């Protein structure tokens, strides 16, 4: 049964090059043509029997690390509560976190980066993905300098992350 398929798959005989192959040899570099011309194995990576036996396993889709954003890079939301959280064991601090009601209707906890902030309840903010490792349950961050959320005051380095314009020279 498979002998007929194998014969059909072999378009040109190995010992008698076709006219197309001769014209290709003149146009292409000889090193490219001779790459597979002297190999006894076919160019396919597996045999017909292996192909027939193989199961087609669909690739697993990656689980999103920020599912509440759905497919968007950021989402708009409204601050419903401001929280001061303490981090996990080796660290010690008072981290500022906001509870956000997204435009999709879902709620999430988002970390407020940088020193100081102007947020209060009902502020409109932009939420992006990115967890805060030492705060359990906080898998999102707020974008500084967007909508009602002001940038960090007197910030000189990493300004784009904290929504600060370039200072004017005098």
TrEMBL record:
Any Pfam family hit: Ribosom_S12_S23
PROSITE patterns: RIBOSOMAL_S12 (PS00055)
Keyword Zinc-finger: no
GO biological-process terms attached to the record: translation
Xref: SUPFAM superfamilies: Nucleic acid-binding proteins
A GO term from the CC aspect: small ribosomal subunit
Disordered: annotated segments: 50-69
Domain of life: Eukaryota
GO terms of molecular function: structural constituent of ribosome
Record's keyword terms, sorted: Ribonucleoprotein, Ribosomal protein
Keyword Ribosomal protein included in the entry's annotation: yes
Family membership: Belongs to the universal ribosomal protein uS12 family.
The protein, known as: Ribosomal protein S12
Annotated source species: Psilocybe cubensis
Lineage: Eukaryota, Fungi, Dikarya, Basidiomycota, Agaricomycotina
